Amino acid sequence: MAESRRKFDAEFREGAVRIVTETGKPAAEVARDLGVNETTLATWVSRARKAGGDGTLGDSEREELLRLRRKDSEKSKQIKQLEMERDVLKRCMVLWVK
Q1: Contacts made by residues 9-13, CB under 8 angstroms, sequence distance 24+
Q2: Measured between alpha carbons, how far is 28 from 42 in angstroms, rounded to an integer?
Q3: 8 Å CB contact between 41 and 31
């Protein structure tokens, strides 16, 4: 007798994939825990990784991240310089007032 196919909603599939990717547990173990076929879970994980859902960055994203970090570093240096200048001006005002 043929077994009827079970339907899993998107939220359940995403949760199962997150368990595999975030905990590092083998897909077979997670599938047993959740009562899902191992091949089915492996397919979900594979699709998520192809779609970029595994948290890895592509080349263009990595380049943009590096560019933004450099920009942030430059702004941080500018902020420190401005804070030093402000402090010097404050000291000068105190001396001038006295």
Answers
A1: 13/44
A2: 8
A3: yes
